[in-house]
Write a structure and sequence with these properties.
Elements: H1 20-32, H2 39-52, E1 56-60, H3 63-74, E2 81-85, H4 91-98, E3 102-106, H5 117-123, E4 128-134, H6 143-153, E5 156-160, E6 168-169, E7 172-173, E8 180-184, E9 197-201, H7 203-212, H8 221-224, H9 246-257, H10 259-277, E10 283-284, E11 292-293, E12 300-303, H11 311-322, H12 347-353, E13 356-358, H13 367-381
Parallel strand pairs: 2-3, 2-4, 4-5, 5-8
Antiparallel strand pairs: 1-9, 6-7, 6-11, 8-9, 10-12, 12-13
Helix pairs in contact: 1-9, 2-9, 3-4, 3-7, 10-13, 11-13
Bound molecules: pyridoxal-5'-phosphate.
Amino acid sequence: MSAVEARPPFLPWNRPSIGPEEEQEVLDTLRSGWLTAGPKAARFEQAVRDDLGVEEAFAVSSCTAALHLALLAVGIGSGDEVITPSFTFCAAPNTVRQVGATPVFADIHPATLDLDPAKTAEAITGRTRAIMVMHYGGQPCDLAAFRKLADDHGLLLIEDAAHALYARRDGIRAGSVGDLAVFSFYANKVITTGEGGMLAGRGDLVQRARLLGRHGIDSSVWQRHGTRSTAAYEVTVPGLKYTMPDITASVGFRQWEKLPAFTEARARIAAVYDRELAGLPGLRLPVVEAGVEYGRFLYPVLVEPIGDRSRDSVAEEMREAHGIGTSVHFQPVHRLAAYRHLECHLPVTEHAAARQLSLPCYPAMTGDEVQRVIGALQAVWS
Ligand SMILES: Cc1ncc(COP(=O)(O)O)c(C=O)c1O
């Protein structure tokens, strides 16, 4: 062995799993002559619709696009309020601001880090139009409680299920309860198309979103292809362009088929972490509530600051000394420059956000890589 031990390659926080099925499907699309939204996007939408048991699904260019379309489709705008967590990615509150409405941040539950129904109820005002929940890390929030809260107050329920593509609570699939739900297929998500998203839910609302997401044109280019003059269309509303091309959808529906296997692989890694990392002082492992089938986008731990050790020092030591990537989910949105003017009292969010760290947990990890993460954390704690 050389005097200087070779360091193993950097282990990223996340890595996609793309197989020959996706490669073959993309090749098929590239050779088909039809690259934009067409039969492959329709096939992806049908798979999502069937699996979730919802009326409609619309494949779009990102989850952010799906969020934007959801708000436009239900007509939320100036003067309206939408309740969301601050402990989320900026995409949801940003789209609320983009349509001229105001995000109102409610605090999260200390165990699951999901939006707290009681805190949400306290945030409802005469201007509230919708509750936009987020299933943190893939753990569905209390869907029954939120459905009831929304119904009792005549509000729309929108599920940001970017993290929860294959998750259930009490047997109910995340993404199937809201009036609308959005999913992300961004590069680091449970499944990926590089960039991509899906809007699913009530037929009337998704159809409205579909119209708005293809320029406001009354038919798709695929529907017109070969049957009508390409100029035979009407623009009924001034829309945007958010459709998912077939190249992307080819990857998407092949990845979607792998959701159960990917989730199982992540659950196996999580079980090893649960066992091997238990008992490190000040390290809180993820809490999974009874009745939850965790979608497992994240393996989120909380690092209690003790002495010199903090979340940031652990992340740095993992990276610098052990070549292992971690991530933070999330910087609370109300602390970001574009939101600091909003008055917020979110003690649970602040507490979690200062401590949260996401460990590598994805199907492409080998057993040795899982052990490497465990060994590195044990070394950091020693
Ligand atoms: C909770 C949440 N919602 C929405 C998004 C936006 O997803 P996309 O990048 O597909 O627009 C993300 C992305 O990380 C997210 O974490």
